[in-house]
Design a protein that fits this description.
Layout: H1 3-18, H2 23-31, H3 37-44, E1 51-53, E2 76-83, E3 86-93, H4 104-120, E4 124-128, H5 139-155, E5 161-165, E6 168-170, H6 175-178, E7 182-186, E8 191-193, H7 197-204, H8 210-214, H9 216-221, E9 228-230, H10 233-244, H11 285-292, E10 299-301, E11 309-316, E12 319-326, H12 337-352, E13 357-363, H13 370-375, H14 377-390, E14 395-404, H15 405-410, E15 420-423, E16 428-430, H16 434-441, H17 443-448, H18 452-469, H19 473-479, E17 484-485, H20 491-502
Parallel strand pairs: 3-4, 4-5, 5-7, 6-8, 7-9, 12-13, 13-14, 14-15, 14-16, 15-17
Antiparallel strand pairs: 1-2, 2-3, 10-11, 11-12
Helix pairs in contact: 4-5, 12-14, 16-18
């Protein structure tokens, strides 16, 4: 074969690889409202930046007719390129070939890409769209998943890992995304579950379809699996692009800085009146967050799950910060099992990737009741204590209103290593709320007063005394537990000044006695 023929052969093989499972399969993918693997990569990546690897890989399996179904790339498109000018590595499963099922060679391609991403120090993006393990390859496909899981764990805390579920993801396949930092899903076309509807029906007699069992709505509102949801493939990919803009490429880098036109010295008088006069009345803490951070920079994560806590990214003076806040608008901002998990996991991500943490506190306590106690609120709540204590990044805390009992300690208090703690004058820092405290402290005196009007006056009097003596920010300030009491309008400027100085913080903890790692409550 001459040189020209060899060149033509190469070009024809490239064309073959580009077609994946063939034109008919591509048309079917489009008909279902889904982009192909290559279209997704092209949309996400900076134009012309993608370099593919292992385009000509094919499986070597035989039996059950699979030897007759050979496709270049073996059902996954992998390689590297740039997003927003920064290097990233990517593996996008191609549903048009054998349903994107994972076999030995597909897994080898993915693991190879992951290893290179880890050694280079660049984020790893997975676009999952697969029927799961390739049955015809038996244990080789299971081995492939195990290799991927191992690399997920080795990469954890070193490079960001983001999974977008853009089609089916079932059985053992769900554990790779679960080991990553963020999972995004697409409405109507994606689902995740360990066991599918048929198995559920056979085992339990339950009738359920794929989306009701493990669709985007379920995982973004009930299970807390999906961090973000896009209405279609393009919006999901846009969310990945935005997410990447807040996080560094690896754990040795600082988060990306973006110059802002929003003055850091900006005071916001509206904040002075944002809290209701009645301390038991709710308000939306997101209004506080958006007024304090750089205009338009707040990017909420898990917006529809465990809504009594708010977490997300923002910028302050151009610097990336992680935001954690109690949400008085939902369950009065109390902490429960789900919100504890939400906060703790996000704190650990921020700490892994050098992102300072700003915590806005308005918490009446941990949620009471048998459902919470029997569900393990003790160990789940302990995760927050563990995560904040473990974190060595700059930690700034603003106490807005209520900060009671163990929840006060848990929400990035000075006692868990916060670097800068301030409160608004409206803060109530105490073992419990004034009404409950008075009921315990003056139980005998209250019960001895028979006249209802007299009893009411007495309760009001001692409640006010309790507020003035104990439930006040000035007692905590007198002890040095908070650094300052500030006007709400000053919050942005005070936080910026503190962050500017504390941003160079380096905390090296000497482990005595030596240990491999701590044992986090799970």
């Amino acid at each position: 074969m001459g040189k020209e023929d060899l060149y033509k052969l190469l070009l024809s093989k490239r064309e073959e690889a580009m077609l994946g499972g063939g034109k008919e399969a591509i048309d079917k993918q489009h008909k279902e409202g889904k982009m192909t693997a290559r279209e997704r990569i092209e949309y996400l990546m900076d134009p012309g930046s993608f370099t593919e690897i292992d385009m000509f890989v094919t499986h070597r399996a035989t039996g059950f007719g699979i030897e007759k179904r050979i496709g270049l790339g073996d059902g996954v498109v992998a390689g590297f390129g740039k997003v927003g000018g920064r290097p990233i590595f990517i593996a996008a499963q191609d549903f048009t070939f054998l349903g994107g099922s994972l076999g030995e060679k597909q897994a080898e391609k993915i693991v190879k890409t992951m290893r290179t991403a880890l050694s280079v120090g660049a984020p790893m993006i997975f676009l999952n769209d697969s029927g799961g393990a390739r049955i015809q390859e038996g244990v080789d496909s299971l081995k492939g998943y195990g290799d991927i899981f191992y690399m997920n764990v080795m990469s954890s805390g070193v490079i960001p890992q983001i999974a977008a579920i853009m089609g089916p993801c079932a059985g053992g396949a769900v554990y790779s995304p679960a080991l990553m930092d963020f999972i995004l899903m697409t409405q109507r076309t994606s689902y995740m579950f360990i066991t599918g509807p048929r198995v559920v029906k056979a085992a339990l007699g339950e009738e359920v379809d794929e989306l009701s069992l493990g669709g985007a709505e379920v995982h973004s509102t009930k299970s807390g699996i999906a961090s973000l949801v896009g209405k279609d493939d393009k919006e999901t990919l846009d969310l990945i692009r935005r997410l990447l803009s807040y996080i560094p490429s690896n754990n040795t880098e600082e988060p990306p800085y973006v110059k802002t036109d929003d003055p850091v010295e900006r005071a916001d008088p509206e904040l002075d009146s944002i809290l209701p006069d009645d301390p038991d009345k709710p308000y939306d803490v997101k209004e506080v967050i958006t007024r304090v951070v750089d205009a338009g920079s707040f990017f909420e994560i898990f917006p529809h799950w465990a809504q009594n806590a708010v977490v997300g990214f923002a910028r302050l003076g151009g610097r990336v910060v992680g935001i954690i806040a109690n949400q008085p608008n939902y369950m009065a901002g109390s902490l429960d099992i789900d919100s504890s998990d939400k906060i703790a996991r996000f704190v650990r991500f921020l700490d892994s990737f050098n992102i300072p943490i700003i915590t806005f506190v308005d918490v009446p306590g941990f949620m009471p009741g048998t459902a919470q106690e029997h569900g393990g609120i003790i160990r789940h709540g302990a995760k927050i204590l563990f995560a904040y204590s473990e974190a060595t990044v700059p930690k700034l805390t603003v106490i807005l209103r209520k900060a009671y009992g163990g929840a006060y300690i848990a929400m990035s208090s000075r006692h868990l290593g916060a670097d800068y703690v301030v409160s608004w004058p409206t803060a109530e820092i105490a073992v419990m709320g004034p009404a409950g405290a008075v009921e315990i402290l003056y139980r005998k005196e209250i019960s001895a007063i028979t006249d209802p009007e007299e009893r009411k006056k007495f309760v009001e009097k001692v409640t006010e005394e309790y507020k003035e003596k104990l439930a006040t920010p000035y007692m905590a300030a007198a002890r040095g537990y908070i650094d300052d009491v500030i006007l709400p309008r000053e919050t942005r400027n005070k936080l910026f000044k503190a962050l500017e100085i504390i941003s160079t913080k380096r905390e090296i903890r000497i482990r005595t006695p030596p240990k491999k790692h701590a044992n986090m409550p799970v």
